[in-house]
Specification:
Distance between the termini: 149 Å
Strand content: 15-25%
Number of helices: 12
Helix content: 10-25%
Number of strands: 20
Structural class: alpha+beta
Shape: elongated
Protein backbone atom coordinates (compact mmCIF):
# COMPACT_ATOMS: atom_id res chain seq x y z
CA UNK A 1 0.00 0.00 0.00
CA UNK A 2 1.34 3.41 -0.83
CA UNK A 3 0.96 6.33 1.46
CA UNK A 4 0.65 9.73 -0.03
CA UNK A 5 1.25 12.86 2.10
CA UNK A 6 -0.53 15.88 0.82
CA UNK A 7 0.37 19.35 2.15
CA UNK A 8 -0.61 22.69 0.79
CA UNK A 9 1.97 25.36 -0.10
CA UNK A 10 1.20 27.52 2.93
CA UNK A 11 2.00 24.74 5.37
CA UNK A 12 5.33 23.98 3.69
CA UNK A 13 6.43 27.65 3.77
CA UNK A 14 5.44 28.02 7.43
CA UNK A 15 7.48 24.98 8.44
CA UNK A 16 10.63 26.11 6.62
CA UNK A 17 10.54 29.52 8.28
CA UNK A 18 10.20 27.93 11.70
CA UNK A 19 13.15 25.58 11.16
CA UNK A 20 15.41 28.43 9.89
CA UNK A 21 14.54 30.62 12.89
CA UNK A 22 15.38 27.76 15.22
CA UNK A 23 18.81 27.22 13.56
CA UNK A 24 19.78 30.85 14.17
CA UNK A 25 18.58 30.96 17.75
CA UNK A 26 22.00 30.15 19.22
CA UNK A 27 24.06 32.73 17.33
CA UNK A 28 25.35 35.52 19.58
CA UNK A 29 24.63 33.70 22.82
CA UNK A 30 28.13 32.14 23.04
CA UNK A 31 30.22 34.79 21.28
CA UNK A 32 28.40 37.75 22.70
CA UNK A 33 27.70 41.01 20.98
CA UNK A 34 30.71 42.40 19.11
CA UNK A 35 32.90 39.35 19.88
CA UNK A 36 33.02 38.09 16.32
CA UNK A 37 36.18 38.89 14.34
CA UNK A 38 36.99 37.90 10.78
CA UNK A 39 40.68 37.67 11.63
CA UNK A 40 39.87 34.89 14.10
CA UNK A 41 38.27 32.91 11.34
CA UNK A 42 41.16 33.50 8.94
CA UNK A 43 43.55 32.28 11.62
CA UNK A 44 41.95 28.86 11.53
CA UNK A 45 44.13 26.12 10.01
CA UNK A 46 41.86 25.72 6.98
CA UNK A 47 42.45 29.37 6.01
CA UNK A 48 46.10 29.71 7.06
CA UNK A 49 48.46 28.97 4.19
CA UNK A 50 52.16 28.98 5.00
CA UNK A 51 54.86 29.03 2.34
CA UNK A 52 58.10 27.64 3.78
CA UNK A 53 60.08 29.11 0.90
CA UNK A 54 59.40 32.69 2.04
CA UNK A 55 60.77 34.43 5.14
CA UNK A 56 58.45 35.95 7.75
CA UNK A 57 56.76 39.24 6.96
CA UNK A 58 58.94 41.03 9.52
CA UNK A 59 61.99 40.23 7.40
CA UNK A 60 60.47 41.53 4.19
CA UNK A 61 59.64 45.08 5.21
CA UNK A 62 59.71 47.62 2.46
CA UNK A 63 63.20 48.88 1.64
CA UNK A 64 64.28 50.79 -1.47
CA UNK A 65 66.24 47.77 -2.69
CA UNK A 66 66.22 44.09 -1.94
CA UNK A 67 68.89 41.44 -2.54
CA UNK A 68 67.93 37.77 -2.59
CA UNK A 69 70.66 35.12 -2.41
CA UNK A 70 69.44 31.94 -4.11
CA UNK A 71 70.67 29.52 -1.46
CA UNK A 72 68.72 27.86 1.35
CA UNK A 73 69.05 28.97 4.96
CA UNK A 74 70.04 26.53 7.68
CA UNK A 75 67.18 24.97 9.72
CA UNK A 76 69.41 24.86 12.82
CA UNK A 77 69.11 28.58 13.60
CA UNK A 78 67.15 29.75 16.64
CA UNK A 79 64.13 31.98 16.21
CA UNK A 80 65.66 35.31 17.15
CA UNK A 81 69.10 34.70 15.63
CA UNK A 82 70.25 35.86 12.23
CA UNK A 83 69.87 33.43 9.36
CA UNK A 84 72.89 31.36 8.31
CA UNK A 85 73.46 30.12 4.76
CA UNK A 86 75.96 27.49 3.64
CA UNK A 87 77.85 27.94 0.35
CA UNK A 88 80.21 25.71 -1.59
CA UNK A 89 83.66 27.06 -2.41
CA UNK A 90 83.89 28.35 -5.98
CA UNK A 91 80.24 27.62 -6.86
CA UNK A 92 78.26 30.36 -8.62
CA UNK A 93 75.28 31.64 -6.62
CA UNK A 94 72.67 34.01 -7.98
CA UNK A 95 71.84 37.22 -6.10
CA UNK A 96 68.70 38.87 -7.44
CA UNK A 97 68.61 42.65 -7.11
CA UNK A 98 65.11 44.10 -6.84
CA UNK A 99 63.89 47.70 -7.03
CA UNK A 100 61.43 47.97 -4.12
CA UNK A 101 60.81 51.70 -4.25
CA UNK A 102 57.31 53.04 -3.91
CA UNK A 103 56.03 55.19 -6.74
CA UNK A 104 56.91 58.46 -5.03
CA UNK A 105 60.15 57.25 -3.43
CA UNK A 106 63.50 58.49 -4.81
CA UNK A 107 62.06 59.70 -8.14
CA UNK A 108 65.49 61.01 -9.14
CA UNK A 109 66.56 57.39 -9.71
CA UNK A 110 63.96 56.75 -12.38
CA UNK A 111 65.55 55.57 -15.62
CA UNK A 112 68.98 55.73 -13.97
CA UNK A 113 71.73 53.23 -13.24
CA UNK A 114 73.02 52.54 -9.73
CA UNK A 115 76.30 51.02 -8.63
CA UNK A 116 76.64 48.16 -6.16
CA UNK A 117 79.81 46.96 -4.46
CA UNK A 118 79.61 43.33 -3.33
CA UNK A 119 82.17 42.04 -0.87
CA UNK A 120 82.79 39.07 1.39
CA UNK A 121 83.84 40.20 4.87
CA UNK A 122 84.27 38.73 8.34
CA UNK A 123 81.26 38.35 10.60
CA UNK A 124 83.39 38.11 13.75
CA UNK A 125 84.29 41.54 15.14
CA UNK A 126 87.72 40.33 16.28
CA UNK A 127 88.56 39.34 12.72
CA UNK A 128 87.15 42.62 11.42
CA UNK A 129 89.78 44.45 13.51
CA UNK A 130 92.53 42.46 11.81
CA UNK A 131 90.92 42.11 8.39
CA UNK A 132 93.91 43.51 6.52
CA UNK A 133 96.35 41.12 8.20
CA UNK A 134 94.02 38.14 7.71
CA UNK A 135 93.51 38.85 4.02
CA UNK A 136 97.21 39.47 3.44
CA UNK A 137 97.99 36.14 5.08
CA UNK A 138 95.46 34.42 2.83
CA UNK A 139 96.97 36.14 -0.21
CA UNK A 140 100.44 34.97 0.84
CA UNK A 141 99.24 31.35 0.99
CA UNK A 142 97.10 31.56 -2.17
CA UNK A 143 99.07 33.75 -4.61
CA UNK A 144 97.08 34.83 -7.65
CA UNK A 145 93.69 33.83 -6.18
CA UNK A 146 90.77 36.07 -5.20
CA UNK A 147 88.39 35.67 -2.28
CA UNK A 148 85.41 36.86 -4.36
CA UNK A 149 84.66 36.78 -8.08
CA UNK A 150 81.71 37.64 -10.31
CA UNK A 151 80.59 34.97 -12.77
CA UNK A 152 80.07 37.43 -15.62
CA UNK A 153 78.66 35.01 -18.28
CA UNK A 154 75.86 33.91 -15.95
CA UNK A 155 75.00 37.38 -14.63
CA UNK A 156 72.04 39.27 -16.10
CA UNK A 157 71.40 43.02 -16.38
CA UNK A 158 74.75 44.21 -14.98
CA UNK A 159 77.29 46.36 -16.82
CA UNK A 160 80.89 47.43 -16.26
CA UNK A 161 81.84 44.75 -13.71
CA UNK A 162 85.21 45.58 -12.13
CA UNK A 163 87.66 44.06 -9.67
CA UNK A 164 91.00 45.39 -8.45
CA UNK A 165 94.11 43.45 -7.40
CA UNK A 166 94.36 45.39 -4.13
CA UNK A 167 90.84 44.36 -3.07
CA UNK A 168 90.63 40.60 -3.36
CA UNK A 169 87.34 40.40 -1.47
CA UNK A 170 85.29 43.00 -3.41
CA UNK A 171 83.86 43.69 -6.84
CA UNK A 172 81.62 46.40 -8.29
CA UNK A 173 79.14 46.75 -11.16
CA UNK A 174 76.32 48.95 -12.46
CA UNK A 175 72.73 47.75 -12.86
CA UNK A 176 69.53 49.16 -14.36
CA UNK A 177 66.59 49.62 -12.02
CA UNK A 178 64.13 49.11 -14.87
CA UNK A 179 65.44 45.70 -15.88
CA UNK A 180 65.68 42.29 -14.28
CA UNK A 181 69.16 42.14 -12.77
CA UNK A 182 71.03 39.25 -11.17
CA UNK A 183 74.68 38.89 -10.33
CA UNK A 184 76.31 35.48 -9.80
CA UNK A 185 79.03 35.49 -7.15
CA UNK A 186 81.72 32.94 -6.30
CA UNK A 187 83.41 32.79 -2.89
CA UNK A 188 86.81 31.07 -3.06
CA UNK A 189 87.89 31.23 0.60
CA UNK A 190 86.59 28.60 3.03
CA UNK A 191 85.68 29.28 6.63
CA UNK A 192 88.36 27.05 8.17
CA UNK A 193 91.19 28.92 6.43
CA UNK A 194 90.91 31.64 9.08
CA UNK A 195 90.66 29.28 12.06
CA UNK A 196 93.75 28.79 14.26
CA UNK A 197 95.18 25.35 13.51
CA UNK A 198 95.02 23.07 16.54
CA UNK A 199 94.22 19.39 16.33
CA UNK A 200 91.90 19.16 13.33
CA UNK A 201 88.14 19.43 13.17
CA UNK A 202 88.29 23.19 13.47
CA UNK A 203 85.04 25.13 13.50
CA UNK A 204 84.99 27.49 10.53
CA UNK A 205 84.47 31.22 10.99
CA UNK A 206 81.34 32.84 9.51
CA UNK A 207 81.56 35.45 6.75
CA UNK A 208 79.13 38.05 5.48
CA UNK A 209 78.13 38.87 1.92
CA UNK A 210 77.38 42.59 1.81
CA UNK A 211 75.96 44.84 -0.92
CA UNK A 212 76.46 48.62 -0.78
CA UNK A 213 74.52 50.57 -3.42
CA UNK A 214 75.22 54.11 -4.61
CA UNK A 215 73.64 56.72 -6.86
CA UNK A 216 75.50 58.97 -9.27
CA UNK A 217 76.38 62.37 -7.83
CA UNK A 218 76.82 65.75 -9.48
CA UNK A 219 80.44 64.96 -10.22
CA UNK A 220 79.41 61.92 -12.23
CA UNK A 221 80.88 59.50 -9.67
CA UNK A 222 78.73 56.97 -7.84
CA UNK A 223 79.34 58.27 -4.32
CA UNK A 224 75.85 58.91 -2.87
CA UNK A 225 75.07 56.00 -0.57
CA UNK A 226 71.54 54.62 -0.98
CA UNK A 227 71.31 51.28 0.76
CA UNK A 228 73.32 48.45 2.35
CA UNK A 229 72.33 44.89 3.18
CA UNK A 230 74.13 41.69 4.16
CA UNK A 231 73.65 38.11 5.30
CA UNK A 232 75.70 35.60 7.27
CA UNK A 233 77.31 32.70 5.41
CA UNK A 234 79.74 29.84 5.92
CA UNK A 235 81.80 28.50 3.04
CA UNK A 236 82.76 24.83 2.72
CA UNK A 237 84.85 22.84 0.31
CA UNK A 238 82.89 21.65 -2.79
CA UNK A 239 79.78 19.63 -1.79
CA UNK A 240 80.47 20.42 1.87
CA UNK A 241 77.61 22.93 2.11
CA UNK A 242 75.13 20.32 0.85
CA UNK A 243 76.32 17.79 3.44
CA UNK A 244 76.14 20.37 6.23
CA UNK A 245 72.60 21.38 5.22
CA UNK A 246 71.54 17.72 5.23
CA UNK A 247 73.15 17.15 8.64
CA UNK A 248 71.34 20.16 10.14
CA UNK A 249 68.04 18.97 8.67
CA UNK A 250 68.48 15.47 10.10
CA UNK A 251 69.34 16.87 13.54
CA UNK A 252 66.18 19.00 13.52
CA UNK A 253 64.03 16.02 12.53
CA UNK A 254 65.20 14.19 15.66
CA UNK A 255 64.12 17.02 17.96
CA UNK A 256 60.78 17.02 19.75
CA UNK A 257 57.96 19.28 18.49
CA UNK A 258 58.48 21.58 21.47
CA UNK A 259 62.20 21.99 20.65
CA UNK A 260 61.49 22.55 16.95
CA UNK A 261 59.36 25.57 17.84
CA UNK A 262 62.51 27.34 19.06
CA UNK A 263 64.11 27.20 15.60
CA UNK A 264 63.45 28.97 12.32
CA UNK A 265 62.20 27.02 9.33
CA UNK A 266 64.59 26.66 6.42
CA UNK A 267 63.82 29.00 3.51
CA UNK A 268 64.70 28.24 -0.09
CA UNK A 269 66.31 31.68 -0.49
CA UNK A 270 68.15 34.11 1.76
CA UNK A 271 67.02 37.73 1.93
CA UNK A 272 69.83 40.11 2.87
CA UNK A 273 68.89 42.34 5.81
CA UNK A 274 69.62 46.04 6.05
CA UNK A 275 72.89 47.05 7.69
CA UNK A 276 75.32 49.92 7.99
CA UNK A 277 77.58 50.61 4.99
CA UNK A 278 80.98 48.97 5.12
CA UNK A 279 83.54 51.49 6.47
CA UNK A 280 85.47 51.78 3.20
CA UNK A 281 82.38 51.36 1.01
CA UNK A 282 82.83 54.85 -0.37
CA UNK A 283 86.16 53.88 -1.91
CA UNK A 284 85.69 52.25 -5.28
CA UNK A 285 87.98 49.30 -6.09
CA UNK A 286 88.85 51.23 -9.22
CA UNK A 287 90.09 54.10 -7.05
CA UNK A 288 92.12 51.97 -4.70
CA UNK A 289 95.16 51.47 -6.88
CA UNK A 290 97.37 52.99 -4.19
CA UNK A 291 96.39 51.62 -0.79
CA UNK A 292 97.25 53.68 2.27
CA UNK A 293 99.00 50.78 3.92
CA UNK A 294 102.00 48.58 3.22
CA UNK A 295 101.34 44.92 2.58
CA UNK A 296 103.28 42.65 4.92
CA UNK A 297 102.75 38.87 4.79
CA UNK A 298 101.88 37.36 8.18
CA UNK A 299 104.66 34.82 7.98
CA UNK A 300 107.49 37.32 7.52
CA UNK A 301 108.92 40.04 9.71
CA UNK A 302 111.14 43.01 9.03
CA UNK A 303 114.13 42.79 11.36
CA UNK A 304 116.58 45.09 9.61
CA UNK A 305 115.27 48.08 11.57
CA UNK A 306 115.81 46.40 14.94
CA UNK A 307 118.92 47.80 16.69
CA UNK A 308 121.44 45.27 17.95
CA UNK A 309 121.61 45.21 21.71
CA UNK A 310 123.64 42.04 22.06
CA UNK A 311 126.00 43.33 24.71
CA UNK A 312 123.47 45.37 26.66
CA UNK A 313 122.31 44.24 30.07
CA UNK A 314 118.76 42.92 30.38
CA UNK A 315 118.41 45.00 33.53
CA UNK A 316 119.70 48.18 31.94
CA UNK A 317 117.31 51.11 32.56
CA UNK A 318 115.47 52.58 29.61
CA UNK A 319 117.14 55.42 27.86
CA UNK A 320 114.84 58.48 28.14
CA UNK A 321 115.78 59.43 24.62
CA UNK A 322 114.77 56.10 23.16
CA UNK A 323 111.49 55.21 24.86
CA UNK A 324 109.74 52.40 23.07
CA UNK A 325 112.92 50.86 21.70
CA UNK A 326 113.99 49.38 25.06
CA UNK A 327 113.20 45.79 26.00
CA UNK A 328 110.10 46.82 27.96
CA UNK A 329 107.56 49.38 26.78
CA UNK A 330 107.40 52.45 29.01
CA UNK A 331 104.03 53.99 29.98
CA UNK A 332 105.47 57.36 28.93
CA UNK A 333 106.29 56.14 25.41
CA UNK A 334 104.81 58.30 22.66
CA UNK A 335 102.78 56.97 19.75
CA UNK A 336 105.90 56.94 17.59
CA UNK A 337 107.89 55.11 20.28
CA UNK A 338 105.10 52.56 20.69
CA UNK A 339 105.24 51.89 16.94
CA UNK A 340 109.01 51.35 17.16
CA UNK A 341 108.51 48.97 20.08
CA UNK A 342 105.97 46.93 18.10
CA UNK A 343 108.40 46.67 15.19
CA UNK A 344 111.30 45.72 17.44
CA UNK A 345 109.27 42.97 19.08
CA UNK A 346 108.06 41.54 15.75
CA UNK A 347 104.49 42.83 15.87
CA UNK A 348 104.80 44.39 12.41
CA UNK A 349 101.36 43.15 11.39
CA UNK A 350 99.67 45.23 14.10
CA UNK A 351 101.40 48.57 13.74
CA UNK A 352 98.61 49.86 11.50
CA UNK A 353 95.95 48.59 13.92
CA UNK A 354 97.61 50.41 16.86
CA UNK A 355 98.46 53.53 14.86
CA UNK A 356 97.06 55.90 17.50
CA UNK A 357 98.09 53.97 20.64
CA UNK A 358 100.70 55.37 23.00
CA UNK A 359 102.67 53.25 25.46
CA UNK A 360 100.09 53.95 28.15
CA UNK A 361 97.23 52.94 25.85
CA UNK A 362 98.86 49.61 24.98
CA UNK A 363 99.68 48.79 28.60
CA UNK A 364 96.05 49.38 29.63
CA UNK A 365 94.81 46.61 27.32
CA UNK A 366 93.92 43.41 29.16
CA UNK A 367 94.81 39.91 28.06
CA UNK A 368 91.23 39.36 26.89
CA UNK A 369 91.31 42.63 24.92
CA UNK A 370 94.45 41.59 23.06
CA UNK A 371 93.15 38.07 22.37
CA UNK A 372 89.95 39.55 20.93
CA UNK A 373 91.88 42.00 18.74
CA UNK A 374 94.88 39.91 17.67
CA UNK A 375 93.66 36.35 18.07
CA UNK A 376 94.81 33.80 20.67
CA UNK A 377 98.40 33.27 19.49
CA UNK A 378 99.51 36.85 18.79
CA UNK A 379 97.25 38.27 21.52
CA UNK A 380 98.90 36.21 24.26
CA UNK A 381 102.36 36.88 22.81
CA UNK A 382 101.72 40.64 22.77
CA UNK A 383 100.32 40.56 26.31
CA UNK A 384 103.40 38.70 27.57
CA UNK A 385 105.70 41.15 25.79
CA UNK A 386 103.91 44.16 27.29
CA UNK A 387 103.95 42.72 30.83
CA UNK A 388 107.31 40.99 30.64
CA UNK A 389 110.03 41.41 33.23
CA UNK A 390 113.75 40.96 32.68
CA UNK A 391 114.71 37.31 32.34
CA UNK A 392 118.02 36.19 33.76
CA UNK A 393 120.38 35.11 30.94
CA UNK A 394 121.54 31.51 30.82
CA UNK A 395 125.21 32.51 30.87
CA UNK A 396 127.09 35.73 31.60
CA UNK A 397 130.65 36.15 30.26
CA UNK A 398 132.96 39.14 30.84
CA UNK A 399 135.49 39.97 28.11
CA UNK A 400 138.18 42.57 27.63
CA UNK A 401 139.99 43.26 24.36
CA UNK A 402 143.71 42.90 24.97
CA UNK A 403 144.63 45.81 22.71
CA UNK A 404 142.76 48.12 25.11
CA UNK A 405 145.36 47.53 27.78
CA UNK A 406 147.75 49.85 25.94
CA UNK A 407 145.03 52.23 24.76
CA UNK A 408 145.20 55.95 25.58
CA UNK A 409 141.69 55.51 27.01
CA UNK A 410 143.31 54.22 30.17
CA UNK A 411 144.57 57.73 30.82
CA UNK A 412 140.98 58.73 31.53
CA UNK A 413 140.38 59.57 35.22
CA UNK A 414 137.57 57.02 35.22
CA UNK A 415 140.12 54.28 34.60
CA UNK A 416 142.89 55.47 36.89
CA UNK A 417 143.77 53.63 40.07
CA UNK A 418 145.06 55.80 42.94
CA UNK A 419 147.51 54.33 45.50
CA UNK A 420 150.21 55.35 48.03
CA UNK A 421 153.71 53.86 47.92
CA UNK A 422 156.01 52.91 50.86
CA UNK A 423 157.38 56.46 51.10
CA UNK A 424 153.90 57.83 51.44
CA UNK A 425 153.95 59.30 47.98
CA UNK A 426 150.70 59.32 46.01
CA UNK A 427 150.83 57.53 42.65
CA UNK A 428 148.44 56.79 39.79
CA UNK A 429 148.52 53.54 37.85
CA UNK A 430 146.70 52.56 34.67
CA UNK A 431 146.38 48.84 35.28
CA UNK A 432 142.58 48.81 35.49
CA UNK A 433 141.07 46.56 32.79
CA UNK A 434 137.70 47.40 31.20
CA UNK A 435 135.41 44.44 30.66
CA UNK A 436 132.18 44.09 28.73
CA UNK A 437 129.38 41.84 29.91
CA UNK A 438 127.96 39.44 27.36
CA UNK A 439 124.58 37.89 28.12
CA UNK A 440 123.91 34.59 26.34
CA UNK A 441 120.40 33.24 25.86
CA UNK A 442 121.66 30.36 23.70
CA UNK A 443 124.66 28.38 24.88
CA UNK A 444 126.30 28.11 21.46
CA UNK A 445 129.67 29.10 20.05
CA UNK A 446 127.94 31.06 17.28
CA UNK A 447 126.16 33.35 19.75
CA UNK A 448 129.29 33.98 21.79
CA UNK A 449 131.32 34.76 18.64
CA UNK A 450 128.63 37.14 17.35
CA UNK A 451 128.55 39.05 20.62
CA UNK A 452 132.33 39.23 20.87
CA UNK A 453 132.52 40.58 17.31
CA UNK A 454 130.07 43.31 18.30
CA UNK A 455 132.13 44.27 21.38
CA UNK A 456 135.40 44.30 19.44
CA UNK A 457 133.84 46.18 16.48
CA UNK A 458 134.95 43.43 14.11
CA UNK A 459 132.98 42.36 11.02
CA UNK A 460 131.65 38.89 11.74
CA UNK A 461 132.81 37.66 8.33
CA UNK A 462 136.46 38.43 9.10
CA UNK A 463 136.62 36.02 12.06
CA UNK A 464 137.86 32.65 10.89
CA UNK A 465 138.41 30.70 14.10
CA UNK A 466 138.07 31.29 17.85
CA UNK A 467 140.31 29.44 20.30
CA UNK A 468 140.47 29.19 24.06
CA UNK A 469 143.97 29.10 25.50
CA UNK A 470 144.49 26.03 27.66
CA UNK A 471 146.53 25.75 30.89
CA UNK A 472 149.71 24.73 29.06
CA UNK A 473 149.33 27.37 26.36
CA UNK A 474 147.62 25.10 23.85
CA UNK A 475 144.83 26.53 21.66
CA UNK A 476 141.50 24.68 21.90
CA UNK A 477 138.89 25.31 19.21
CA UNK A 478 135.77 26.93 20.64
CA UNK A 479 132.75 24.62 20.37
CA UNK A 480 129.13 24.48 21.57
CA UNK A 481 130.12 21.91 24.16
CA UNK A 482 132.80 24.21 25.53
CA UNK A 483 130.39 27.16 25.79
CA UNK A 484 127.77 24.93 27.43
CA UNK A 485 130.27 24.00 30.16
CA UNK A 486 131.67 27.49 30.83
CA UNK A 487 131.19 28.62 34.45
CA UNK A 488 128.82 31.56 34.82
CA UNK A 489 130.57 34.95 34.98
CA UNK A 490 133.78 33.66 33.38
CA UNK A 491 136.36 36.33 32.46
CA UNK A 492 138.46 36.38 29.28
CA UNK A 493 141.01 38.57 27.57
CA UNK A 494 140.50 38.64 23.79
CA UNK A 495 143.56 38.87 21.58
CA UNK A 496 143.39 39.04 17.79
CA UNK A 497 145.86 37.33 15.45
CA UNK A 498 145.87 37.55 11.64
CA UNK A 499 145.65 34.28 9.80
CA UNK A 500 148.45 33.04 7.50
CA UNK A 501 146.97 34.74 4.43
CA UNK A 502 146.43 38.01 6.25
CA UNK A 503 142.83 38.17 5.10
CA UNK A 504 141.07 37.03 8.28
CA UNK A 505 141.48 36.97 12.05
CA UNK A 506 141.75 34.43 14.79
CA UNK A 507 140.43 35.30 18.26
CA UNK A 508 142.14 33.82 21.28
CA UNK A 509 140.43 33.77 24.68
CA UNK A 510 142.91 33.83 27.57
Amino acid sequence: MAWVLKMDDASIESGLVHDFDASLSGIGQELGAGAYSMSDVLALPIFKQEDSSLPPESETKNTPFQYVLCAATSPAVKLHDETLTYLNQGQSYEVRMLDNRKQEELPELNNKMVKSIVRVVFHDRRLQYTEHQQLEGWKWNRPGDRLLDIDIPMSVGIVEPKTHPSQLNAAEFLWDLNKRSSVFVQVHCISTEFTPRKHGGEKGVPFRIQFDTFAQGESGEYTEHLHSASCQIKVFKPKGADRKQKTDREKMEKRSPQEKEKYQPSYDTTILSECSPWPDAYVSPNQAATPSFTSTPLSTYTTSSVPDSDSSSPNHPADPGSLGTSEQLSPTASIQDAQKWLLKNRFNSYTRLFTHFSGSDLLKLTRDDLVQICGPADGIRLFNALKSRSVRPRLTVYVCQESLLESPLLESPLLERHSTNENGEHSISSSLHVYHALYLEELTAAELIRKMACVCSLPLGTINQVYRQGPTGIHILLSDQMVYNLPDESCFLISTVKDDLGEGLHLILK
